Amino acid sequence: MTLKRKLKMTEKEVQKFVESIDEDGDGTVDVSEFLHLVEVGSKRDVICKALIQRAGIRKTFKKYDRDGNGCITRDEFRKIVEDKYQTTLMASQVDEMMRQADEDNNGNIDYEEFLKAFSYFPVT
Description:
Elements: H1 3-7, H2 11-21, H3 31-40, H4 44-64, E1 71-72, H5 74-85, H6 91-101, E2 109-110, H7 111-117
Antiparallel strand pairs: 1-2
């Protein structure tokens, strides 16, 4: 689920929201403006929750990226799915799931693909 949907805001409302936190009016939200939003903003609970979830997903990604190359290989992917669902998968099942998650079809799953495919992983 995108942050826009979690915030339950239209594109126009998101634009107004960004403008309201862009304190210096330069059209971007810098680190200090973002941190101020997280500390006191009206949507701080949703934003903090999303940041925590993303940090948990990053931690899970690093755990399974055993060789540290920044990508999840087919074997690493199989381990993720088998751990998550406590089952052993057939090669064809792993291949199909990998195909769905590997958006750029390079044979590996990078962090952004992992984030999209496994955003429902519980944060530990």
